[in-house]
Write a structure and sequence with these properties.
Helix content: 55-70%
Largest sheet: 5 strands, parallel
CATH class of the largest domain: Mainly Alpha
Number of helices: 17
Number of domains: 3
Shape: elongated
Length: about 325
Amino acid sequence: MAAPEPIRLILGDDEFLAERAAAEYVKAVRAAMPEHDPAPAVNRVAGADLTSGALNEITSPTLFGGAVVGVIESGQDVDKDTIAAVLAYAKQPAPDIYLAVCHNGGNKGKALSEGLKKLGLDPVRVSKIKRQPDRVAFVRGELRDAGASPRSASAEIADTIIQAVGSDLRELASACAQLVADTDGKITQESVAQYYSGRAEVSGFTVADATIAGDAAEALGALRWAMQVGVDPVPIADALAMAVRNLSRVAAERGGAAQLAGQLGMAPWQIEKARKQARNWTADALAEAMQVCARLNGEVKGGADDRGWALEHAILQITRLSAAGRTRV
């Protein structure tokens, strides 16, 4: 196997993905070495602690031979003088010495990332995942890599895991590996809910789904349990707003789910789900529900003395706006 490039720029603000990218670089170096060579020595240093002397240390050969991998973490914290030393080294890297430079991609310390890119480095991107479809794709990839069956790596299973675990990528990756190991790769929505029994029940998406369905009792029960175990009201309010917004967007469009997926930034199964939910809603009711969500947003972010009460009041208002909710009254 061909050896990786001697300098690798890892660019982005997600700490977990940056750590993983650095680890994959080390693995690539090891895979390119002769089988009987010792494992590469890995030297790590935080950007704030990097000096010219420390740079020389992490890029120096060992007494025992073999490759050396230096990893500069939080490269945006490297000072101006040391940036010049790193760039000078990058122009003439030593043989069998490899250097990974992690930078969050911001303006601080930008001379380092831009300087390395000018040397022809193609950065490995590790930006935070912010869109739900991208988060679902990440989880599906984790499930496949861990050995889940094709059915167990579906978008629906991935979304269930996200609802149960949250959006932190480190926790999601750990959960995927654990679920695959504990189920022999045959994961169902029920097994996820059972495995995370205390967490799946308090998801903001669970509260939102029950609210949109007009089931006030279920929504309020999930909300009170969430508040009891310390879930912050803001993500619950955000989930409610997202659910109403998705209904409004889907209700106004015609065409197949696959066709609309790219246009609306939603997965096809999310569009199908929203369409089924939208059958109980009129355009006027959706417009009023969006106003309720807008008011709730301000209340949970500082405008209300009792944020829990604000959430309950909004849930009751929204459930009564749906046709399904009115039939329960």
